[in-house]
Sequence to fold (93 residues):
Amino acid sequence: MSSTSDISPLGSCEKMRKPGLKGALEHLYFTYSVNFGLYMLEPWEVRMFNAILCCMFMMSLYTFCVYFPPYVIEMLIYIGLVSSDVVKVEDFS
Fold:
C-alpha cells in the first residue's frame, strides 16, 4: 500500500525532470514541441517552423514598440493624466 505523500499531481514527469534552469528550459521546449506537433516533423521542417515563428514574433515586437507608445500618450492626454502642453504626440510618430 502506498502513501498519498509520494503521489505527485504531475505523475512521474516531475521526478524525471533535471533540476535547475537547464531542466526547466528542456521541459518548456518539450512542451512546446508536443503542443505544436513538432516531434512528427523532419529536423529541417522543425528549423523552418521555428524560424518562421521567430520572425513573426520579432515583427510583432517591432510593431508593438513602434506603434504602441503614441496610442498610450494620446490615451493619457484624453484621460487627463498628462497635459497636452507637456507631451506632443508628434514627437512619437
